[in-house]
Amino acid sequence: MAKKQKKQAGGTPATVALTAAGTPFTLHAYDHDPSSPSYGEEAAQALGVSPDRVFKTLVADVDGTLTVAVVPVAGQLDLKALAAAVGGKRATMADPAAAERTTGYVRGGISPLGQRKRLPTVLDASAASHATICISAGRRGLEVELSPADLSTLTEATLAPIGRG
Predict the structure, then answer these.
(1) Which residues contact 99 (CB under 8 A, 6 or more apart)?
(2) What one-character DSSP code corresponds to residue 7?
(3) Phi and psi torsions of 71, nearest 5°
(4) CA gap 126, 117 in Å, rounded
(5) What is the C-alpha separation between 16 and 41, in angstroms, rounded?
(6) Band of the pLDDT at 33, cuts 50, 70, 90?
(7) Neighbouring-strand partners of residue 83
(8) Pairing, β 55-62 against β 91-93
(9) DSSP designation for 54
């Protein structure tokens, strides 16, 4: 019953996963502008949150394995650091269609939570300096705020310095 109620309230696989795990979170909705050049920067501005606390979910290919990188929207992903964090040699950004197919989410709305297939996940170490961070809730215009520790636990993430800038 709780899943159905959550679904009716705009639930996504990410919020369903959070609810099922009993993890505390706050949902933030905003009007997404399709012409916005950066989904993450748009979210930070719309929510009135520092871009250092809003994290984007990127999917990379590390030695043939799709891997999730969660980094602040204010910076960029360091592909070499990502590869090193998971014991790989080389990382490139994943094909967007493969990322969407594998995660079950659309680009700009990919969440590290509730993905169709669980992928290795690396959370930028800067997340640990915040009480809460915001990540995509699985849909453009919808963010979820939670503790970095809870995100790490739910995604079995490695914490590593993978962001730059």
Answers:
(1) 59, 66, 107, 110
(2) H
(3) -130, 155
(4) 26
(5) 25
(6) confident
(7) none
(8) antiparallel
(9) B
Q: How far apart are the first and last CA of the chain?
A: 44
What pLDDT band is residue 10 in, cutting at 50, 70 and 90?
low
Tokens of 90: 């080389």
H-run or E-run covering 57: strand 55-62
The rounded mean pLDDT for the chain is 91
Residue range 59-72: mean pLDDT, rounded: 98
Residue 57 neighbours by CB distance under 10 Å: 26
Question: Residue 1: exposed, middle, or buried by beta-carbon count in 10 A (0-12, 13-18, 19+)?
Answer: exposed
Contacts of 22 (CB under 8 A, 6+ apart): none
Asked whether residue 119 carries a pLDDT value surpassing 70, the answer given is yes
- Over range 108-137, report the average pLDDT: 96
Cα–Cα nearest to 139, from 18, 3, 12: 12
Q: Length of the chain, please?
A: 165
